[in-house]
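Form 12-C: Joint structure prediction
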Amino acid sequence: MKKILALALVLALVFSMTACGSKKADKSAAAEKSTYVVATNPDFAPFEFIDEETQQPTGFDMDLIKAIAEDQGFTVEIQQMGFDAICGAVQNGVVDIGASGMSITPERQETVLFSDPYIEAGLSISVRDDDTTITSAEDLAGKVCAVQIGTTGAAKAQELFDAGILKEVKVLDKVDVVYQELKTKGADCVINDTPVTKAYISNAGGVKIVGDELVADSYGFAVAKDNTALAEKINKGLANLKANGKYDELIAKYF
Ligand code: ARG
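Section 2 - Result
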């Protein structure tokens, strides 16, 4: 009788613990879900851009996060937003994952949690093809620079403006508009991520990279600070895709 009672007690305890645990998990932003909402700004080929046929976001980041999801047994729903809104949306739990060529920076790490880095990038200066006045960062004095809002390129340009080097920084919504501004001579240069600048050059042309890379960085997927479980899943998925060749397949497809 005593044994049965003790067993019942243990069972009740275990039950109450799991019930309590799951209740807590449900309330938390870090609750496990079968579908995660992924925010992206599809204006950043080859990482994320709108597929002309489907009119849906596609690109390296999109394929990679979908492959990670498949590997880890969840699905994703893509939500488009301005690049400057993504960190906040992740932080506030409006979306679960930011997948948008997002550079891992110490400032962003104060508000969001990044996955392991999934690719290396950096910032380059670009100018009009026929420009001979800017050949490196040394020639930026008195120049006007166009950048995309909320980006590391915008932060770098602001730094050069604050140091009294650039004359003006034009902060624009979209990368296409940034290059348009350069081509129509509303700006003398652009500071943008090197792989995206290279993709723009091979797709649209009319622009060239000058000088050395200003900074090197790497991209990560962003999740809410307390969502270590989701970050772990992403990291595991990424490691699996690197091991099974799928990651290299995507690199070959987009670069
Ligand atoms: N890597 C840069 C940053 O983190 C630019 C990213 C812009 N991404 C985009 N999808 N528009 O600030």
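Section 3 - Comments
The chain has two domains: 33-120+219-254, 123-216. Residues 41, 43-44, 48, 83, 100-103, 148, 151-152, 193 surround arginine (CB under 6 Å).
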